[in-house]
UniProtKB/TrEMBL annotation:
Domain LysM: 342-386
PROSITE patterns (alphabetical): LYSM (PS51782), TRANSGLYCOSYLASE (PS00922)
Transmembrane segments: none
Superkingdom assignment: Bacteria
CDD domains: LysM (cd00118), MltD-like (cd16894)
Protein name in the entry: LysM domain-containing protein
Native source species: Vreelandella lutescens
Similarity remark: Belongs to the transglycosylase Slt family.
Gene3D superfamilies according to UniProt: 1.10.530.10, LysM domain
Alphabetical list of InterPro entries matching this protein: LysM, LysM_dom_sf, Lysozyme-like_dom_sf, Transglyc_AS, Transglycosylase_SLT_dom_1
């Protein structure tokens, strides 16, 4: 809408400018003394500007991300490009896999890309979670790494990511994203004279491993850039994977890939809280499903926020701003009245759809939490868990 209004305003200005004239081409031909005159519209520079504005304005999160890419035009040595091309072929051979991962990125991509851009970093870095976790904030490796950015426990601790029985900052998308970008910038500046590709290698394998490999490459007369290094196999493939998926996203049609529509603005709002709140309470107060809040707050391990561990609750961006202000008030008494019981006793005439609506829950969550095989056969007196715990 903003794009349309801006373009319309430009057009209207030309229409109301007393000094503006439209250019026409008049063709006159004489025929038995009569003149046949026709006018053909000739676009001026102003009209060209109108259409350029329509084209250049970012339309979605992918357009914004592409505009911040910085590595697409860099020519690589042939052997390095071959490593990237190998992963391009791998990804393009499974377009359904790319579709699934990018769909999973929908709540997060616009915000992460915005954080990367605000720091002046290459937009390609916003795609690291594609390589690390397939954009799954709950992802855990067999070695103990967790979250979108796959922080190991020790690394997360060193970066100040809180971990306890109620909260894991590695799973908190906002907190872990800030930590990951800080870490990449810090390593690049401290060890690699700002070289982010070397910092990416250190992110994956550790700075000690990369530094040793760099010294070895330099002793052989090489510059010691990422593409010169002999590293563990996973790290050798790390940057090629990232460049490959960025290449595909830069021109998805060329690779037969379909990307989901993602709005250019973040899909969530942040609420700073000074008092504990459960997702069930917030769900009732905000009139948002509990499952939607849980999806946006994967770091809350037991379904509640304790300000001693975390102070920010993410909520869908469409939530009414007045309700958000009410939720964020430190003396808010609505939370107590919004308290949700942990179980529901089925009454005669109850059905699962009505129970789910009563507590702002997803019906499928109730089915899963209670191992219900026949939703239509609820029995009076039956107790249903409302939290899965």
């Amino acid at each position: 809408m903003g794009l349309f209004l801006a373009a319309a305003a430009s057009s209207q200005a030309s229409a109301t400018d007393p000094n503006h004239t439209y250019t026409t081409v008049n063709d006159a031909t004489a025929n038995n003394g009569s003149v046949n005159s026709t006018s053909r519209f000739q676009p001026t520079a102003l009209h060209h500007h109108f259409w350029e504005a329509l084209v250049l304005e970012p339309q979605d999160a992918w357009s914004s991300l592409r505009s911040s890419f910085q590595w697409q035009e860099k020519n690589l040595p042939a052997d390095a490009q071959a490593r990237v091309d190998e992963w391009i072929e791998y990804y393009r051979s499974s377009p359904q896999n790319i579709a699934a991962i990018t769909e999973r990125a929908t709540p997060w991509l616009a915000w992460i890309a915005q954080q990367v851009s605000d720091r002046g970093l290459p937009g390609e870095l916003a795609l690291i979670p594609f390589v690390e976790s397939s954009f799954d904030p709950h992802a855990r490796s067999h070695l103990g790494a967790a979250g979108l950015w796959q922080f190991m426990p020790g690394t997360g601790d060193a970066l100040g990511l809180v971990r306890n029985g109620n909260y894991d900052g590695r799973l908190d998308v906002v907190t872990s994203t800030d930590a990951a970008l800080d870490y990449l910038e810090m390593q690049a500046d401290e060890w690699y004279e700002g070289d982010l590709m070397l910092s990416l290698a250190a992110y994956n394998a550790g700075a000690g491993t990369v530094n040793r490999a760099q010294r070895q490459a330099q002793s052989q007369g090489l510059k010691g850039q990422y593409w010169d290094l002999s590293l563990p196999q996973e790290t050798m493939q790390y940057v090629p994977k990232l460049k490959a998926i960025a290449t595909i996203i830069n021109d998805p049609e060329a690779y037969g890939v379909s990307l989901p529509d993602i709005h250019p603005d973040p899909a969530f709002a942040k609420v700073q809280l000074e008092q504990p709140v459960s997702l069930a309470q917030a769900s009732q107060l905000l009139d948002v499903s509990q499952s939607a809040l849980a999806e946006l707050n994967p770091g809350l391990l037991n379904g509640s926020l304790d300000p001693s561990s975390a102070q920010t609750l993410l909520v869908p961006e469409e939530v009414d701003t007045q309700v958000l202000a009410q939720l964020s008030q430190s003396d808010n008494t609505s939370l107590a009245s919004a308290s949700t019981p942990s179980v529901h006793r089925v009454e005669s005439g109850d059905n699962l759809s009505a129970i789910a609506a009563q507590y702002n829950l997803d019906q499928q969550d109730l089915i899963r939490w209670n191992a219900i095989e026949r939703p239509e056969a609820l029995q009076p007196g039956q107790l249903l868990s409302l939290s899965g715990q």
